[in-house]
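Entry for the shared binder. Reason: the reviewer on the internal report wants the predicted structure included alongside the sequence.
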Amino acid sequence: MNPLLVNIPTQLETERLILRPPRQFGDGSFVNAAIKDSLNELQAWLPFAQTMPSVEETEANLREAHINFLKRESLRFLIFHKETNEFTGVASFENINWEIPKCQIGYWINTKFSRKGYMSETVKTLTEFGLNDIKFKRIEIRCESSNLKSRSIPEKLGFELEGILKNEDLSANRSRLTDTCIYALVPEF
């Protein structure tokens, strides 16, 4: 399969949200503002949030994500509330292996939108799209074992906890070893 020929829509919709890939330019300021608003929560789990990026760094990261989307190397979606058009977070297909095909889903949410079910709604939509339209044979969600909010999403959506890898990674701030939970969903044949 040539991944460049895989048709990925420029917008996915859920009941309350719109998901779209980063644009060629112009998304950096509002994504950066969300990182700033959520930095305390993101720092515990995400290496990129150990220091507050500049707007220019965020813009460059999103432009790279746009290129990777076009090349089908990773498929990042920015999440917006349908009614208010407010940016709520990010979810993506990462570590895509087109030969199998399989991927991992990663995500983070702007703190002011947490605990409303938006990320579960987003991940459910991406999972269904990945299995039904892209035809992934395996979708994983990996997260630190102590990240209970992140773990709750695959657990709610019927992913199977395949295992916990002990001392498998470093914490986001690189100060200690952490355990990684591997959740997976595979289609039934």
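Summary line for the report: The radius of gyration is 16 Å.
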